[in-house]
Design a protein that fits this description.
Residues 223-365 form the Fe2OG dioxygenase domain. It is a single chain. With 371 residues, the chain is an alpha+beta fold. The protein has a single domain, classed as q2cbj1_9rhob like domain (Jelly Rolls, Sandwich). It contains 10 helices and 18 strands. It has helices at residues 2-5, 14-20, 27-38, 42-53, 55-60, 65-68, 93-101, 124-136, 201-214, 296-299, and strands at 105-110, 115-119, 172-173, 192-195, 228-232, 238-241, 249-250, 257-260, 263-270, 273-275, 278-280, 304-306, 319-321, 328-332, 346-348, 351-354, 356-361, 365-369. The strands form 4 sheets. Strands 1-2-14-9-17-5-4-3 form an 8-stranded antiparallel sheet. A 5-stranded antiparallel sheet has the order 6-15-11-13-12, with no helix packed on it. α7 (93-101) packs parallel to α9 (201-214). The radius of gyration is 28 Å and the shape is elongated. Bound molecules: 2-oxoglutaric acid and fe (ii) ion.
């Protein structure tokens, strides 16, 4: 009887044996196995897609900090950003109109010394338009005697990405302005620079933006010096320096007035590079009593990193800022007594691959007259 109640054992049909094939798995089982094996690769695939869209910056803040190390930002080159904005025209009235209405947001990095991160200081279109101006501008002769900037002349070295077709070779090896004597080319600065015309409507719109940011700390009669584009190719860098002079400079107009750079804006205009961060070794953020416990990268969405790269000599502590197009770092160089703050010493770290282009905006303040 018991036997009668048991389901009869039927041999697997020919069809099901065929479906299992030689491996003994059905196609559905094989598919499941493949998904199971490929599952660990999914986050990587998602990550690389999101990094192209910069979504990962937003996602970063939700990651626990131990995981952040596995998602070190920007290890591969994004596509050449000039390509999508190749036709941007610095003279376009619509660009200038948008420039006047532009808004940015800010995040304080450090109160003392004051360092502020500015998101979207320029739009992507403005960034590319300013670069175009750097390639195309020839300094008016009245500016060429300025001690801050050499006149544009050098021939462009071979680049990874071709400059815009209409460009002229206006990037010259970067110089360092000295308190006394002529500008000098030094080995610690291997980037190339190009001045921008102060009177160009786009440049003047960007300077108005910077002036508004400075509010009451820059008086209406205190000007900006000639904005300076700075371009880096692989290995190029700018070693530790301050942007202010240790002694105030004498105006060349015969007035005997003294001036210096009370603050700096460094704006990232092109970011298709690896490394090349702007590094402040003496600015420690979230580094209180209990050591370096704060989740800096998470807090700033991967835009601000801790200094210190394994195996890189001379890079310990502090903060560094990843090149991100349109974003800027603002800091105060000189206190209310006219004394320079050595804590804002900084460097443009060597670019790994690709191209980084930044913009220096330096307000100029007057500090009395020569004795
Ligand atoms: O390239 C950078 O990140 C910083 C450049 C800089 O500090 C400068 O040009 O004075
Ligand atoms: Fe600097």
């Amino acid at each position: 009887m018991a036997r009668l109640n048991q389901a009869p054992r039927t041999p697997p049909s020919l069809a099901s044996r065929r479906a299992r094939g030689k491996s003994g798995f059905t196609p559905l089982q094989l598919l499941g196995l493949a998904i199971f094996l490929l599952l660990p690769l999914l986050p990587i695939a998602l990550w690389s897609t999101s990094s192209k869209l910069n979504i990962h910056l937003k996602l970063l803040q939700f990651l626990p900090s131990p995981l952040l190390t596995y998602f070190s930002p920007r290890t591969t080159l994004p596509p050449n950003p000039a390509a999508d904005l190749a036709n941007v025209d610095p003279e376009d009235p619509a660009l200038l109109e948008a420039c006047r209405k532009h808004t940015s947001t800010t995040e304080i990095i450090s109160l003392d010394p004051l360092l502020v991160y500015i998101n979207n200081f320029t739009s992507a279109a403005e960034a590319e338009a300013l670069i175009k101006l750097g390639y195309a501008t020839t300094l008016p002769s009245s500016h060429s005697s300025s001690i801050q900037h050499p006149p544009p002349f050098a021939t462009l070295p071979p680049t990874l990405f071709n400059p815009p077709p209409h460009s002229s070779p206006d990037f010259a090896p970067s110089f360092i302005s000295r308190s006394h004597g002529p500008n000098t080319k030094v080995t610690g600065r291997t980037s190339e620079s190009a001045p921008l015309e102060l009177d160009h409507p786009l440049v003047s719109c960007i300077l108005t933006r910077a002036r508004r940011f400075m509010g009451s700390t820059l008086l209406p009669h205190e000007p900006f010096s000639i904005p300076q584009l700075v371009r880096y190719h692989p290995t190029q860098r700018y070693d530790l320096h301050t942007d202010f002079w240790p002694t105030h400079q004498i105006m060349k107009d015969g007035s005997g007035r003294l001036f210096n750079r009370p603050a700096s804006f460094f704006v990232f205009l092109r970011d298709n590079c690896t490394e090349g961060e702007t590094y402040f070794p003496l600015v420690d953020v979230l580094d209180g009593e209990d050591g370096r416990g704060g989740d800096l990268e998470g807090l700033f969405g991967g835009k601000v990193l801790r200094g210190g790269r394994e195996g890189v000599q001379g890079e310990e502590g502090g903060v560094k800022f990843r090149p991100i197009r349109g974003n800027a770092v603002f800091w105060v160089n000189i206190d209310g007594e006219g004394v320079g703050d050595r804590r804002v010493v900084h460097a443009g770290l060597p670019v790994g691959s690709g191209e980084k282009i930044g913009l220096n905006l330096w307000p100029r303040k007057f500090y009395g007259w020569r004795e």
